[in-house]
Design brief:
By secondary structure, the protein is α+β, with helices and mostly antiparallel strands. It has 2 domains: 75 residues, no CATH class; 122 residues, endopeptidase domain like (from Nostoc punctiforme) (endopeptidase fold (from Nostoc punctiforme)), CATH 3.90.1720.10. Helix content is 27%, strand content 24%. The chain contains 4 helices and 14 strands. A 6-stranded antiparallel beta sheet has the order 5-10-6-7-8-9. The protein has a two-stranded antiparallel ribbon with strand order 1-12. A hairpin with an 8-residue loop joins strand 8 and strand 9. Helix 1 crosses helix 4 and helix 2 packs across helix 3. The longest helix is centred in the N-terminal third of the chain and has 28 residues. The two termini are 34 Å apart.
């Protein structure tokens, strides 16, 4: 009787695993975060302001924390790009937008220059603030500029309007899941002295399905 009771306890433990496994999988798949390349507008402005506050000096050859210290290097840094682009090549990491769609964290490109857009001054949208590297002898700065006819409004690919949020993952497909023998380790609830006896009893129970780990199916 003690041996049969131990068998029932072992079967009950397996049953509990069949409940815990799908719950654990569901918790792991319940949320997903934004892609690693995602960047918010607030983060762009914060990164650019670091250079302004530290008065990083302009240079077309020098680097500061991995980024070239010129106008396009500063935009590359603010946009968290992997390398320092030029004012021409940086368009490959952005797309053009209409002037009236500019938001802080976007960029304004003029011939030979690019800067981080920090906001409009007034409703006329003729003057705007930028965070930039403007030339030799001048450190990174915040300046008010007037919109020019040859200016281009650029938006970084993948920029977010707000911080990343956790979103629900897709519901996993339903149906039986076969668990491989190496996937789960169950600590026996039967004393070591009764292991052989339990094995014999389990083999003799003709009404129960086989207890091989590879044959059990658990439904999610």
């Amino acid at each position: 009787m003690k041996v049969r009771k131990s068998v029932r306890q072992t079967l009950a433990a397996i049953g509990r695993v069949s409940l815990v496994l799908p719950i654990s999988m569901a918790l792991l798949l319940a949320v997903q975060t934004a892609p690693a390349s995602a960047l918010t507008r607030a983060e762009v402005i914060k990164r650019a302001n670091v250079w302004v506050q530290k008065r990083v000096p302009y240079s077309q050859h020098g680097y500061y924390r991995g980024y070239r210290r010129d106008c396009s290097g500063m935009v590359s840094m603010a946009w968290a790009l992997k390398t320092s682009y030029t004012s021409r090549s940086i368009v490959s990491k952005a797309f053009r937008i209409p002037k009236n769609q500019l938001k802080p964290g976007d960029a304004v490109r003029t011939p030979g220059h690019v800067a981080i857009f920090a906001g409009w001054k007034g409703k006329s949208r003729q003057q705007y603030w930028v965070l930039q590297q403007s030339g030799r002898g001048t450190p990174a700065n915040r300046r008010l500029k007037t919109w020019r006819s040859n200016a281009q409004a650029l938006r970084r690919r993948g920029i977010l309007n707000r911080p990343p949020r956790l979103v629900a993952a897709k519901k996993p497909a339903t149906g039986p899941v076969v668990v491989a023998s190496a996937a789960i380790t169950i600590t026996p609830l039967v004393p070591a002295t009764h292991v052989d006896a339990v094995t014999a009893v389990a083999a003799s129970v003709s009404t129960a399905p086989a207890l091989t780990a590879t044959s059990h199916q658990f439904s999610l």
